[in-house]
Design goal:
Elements (H helix, E strand, L loop, with lengths): L10 H7 L9 H5 L1 E5 L5 E8 L5 E8 L5 E8 L10 E3 L6 E7 L5 E8 L6 E8 L5 E7 L6 E8 L5 E8 L7 E8 L11 E3 L6 E8 L5 E7 L8 E7 L8 E3 L6 E8 L4 E8 L9 E10 L2 E10 L5 E9 L2 E11 L2 E10 L6 E5 L5 E8 L5 E10 L2 E9 L6
Antiparallel strand pairs: 1-28, 2-3, 3-4, 4-5, 6-7, 7-8, 8-9, 10-11, 11-12, 12-13, 14-15, 15-16, 16-17, 18-19, 19-20, 20-21, 22-23, 23-24, 24-25, 26-27, 27-28
Length: about 400
Amino acid sequence: MNRNLKIPFFLLFLLASACFDEKDITSVQSESFLKYYNNYPVFTGADAKQTSGLGYALIGTVENTDGTTSICLIRTDEYGNLLDSARYFGRGRNAKAYCLQVLSDGDLAIMGSSLNQTSGKREVLFIRTNSAGDIEWTRTIASTGLNMEAKHFEVDDFGSFIMTGYTENSLPYTDKQVVVAALDKDGNPLFWSPRRMGINAKDDEGNHLQILSDGSYVITGTTWSDPSGISHPFIMKVNTSGGSPGIFALASTQNETGNCIRALDDNHFLVVGTVGSSSSVTGTDIMLQHVSLVDFALTSEWEKTFGSTGNDFGHCLLTENGEIQILGTTTTSGINTAISLIITDSQGNNPQYRTFGLGTQLSASSLENTTEGGFIISGTNKLSDNSISFTLIKTRSDGSM
């Protein structure tokens, strides 16, 4: 395990002084801030994006007073202060938030899942709103009698929404397969959607995708197809008609997951995830791999790991200005966790560590660039089972507060 966490000691002060919807604006706050949002006692963070007005749109999952859950949308100004009331989406029962995109016209696209009250099965829930968060249309994507969820989506040059996740198989099988689904800009399914793919009767789940220069898609996720029972990240290309040559698993001697992918070009990719078993005495590390997929041959160019002596989990990945930026969650002590931002060179070397939330239970969910050259990070701050807040962090370009 690597032990390289550099800790900004002023962060405890920031955590103590950060205030929900603070209106006072200082010169420091204009460059960076840390905010909590807890309009419900339980509000877990899923995703955050910068909007065209230099503010932010945030989505997460709130627990209602009756024990059900809803997707919650919050809009803020550039300093993280609320612009208006929160919006809530779902079909009355157990909706979850997963992914958010800001569209070219300023509209918002929100993806999550909800429970069909008739079948008792989970379905993909997709919502398009205007820039203020008012619903324009809602769609569900389902697999009859089976659970289906999508975890991530992107928008192509035609305004179509391309998403990946999993769907269950029919009995007697109980495994999951990768699902790729697509809606056009008006919410109509593309002719091939949805399409399910897998290696064999073991679980395969898509977690993240990118759209390539020719309009095809590259997906990463996790497969449990290995006869030994360990998990592997995978790479899968899907053409514009939903066809794929198959899933290509990355070699590993221990459990690994694939959580985010970035294309360097149409044949070379960076994948971030987690390596090591969570039950291991030595814990887990953040995994970063550079891989190539050419002519149906998957090759690992190099692999790096990052972490402390506890459990570290890799979530998100960006590549900007010849650097690699990785978002993770790291165990600090006992049940305490912190959000970690790791910035390396293009080969994964010379890592610089930024850690947010020492002495708390902060966990990470999304990482995006801001137009100012910094980063916007979403996550969750857990004080107790009944005190959980959406956390929004804006940093400078070097990841500092």
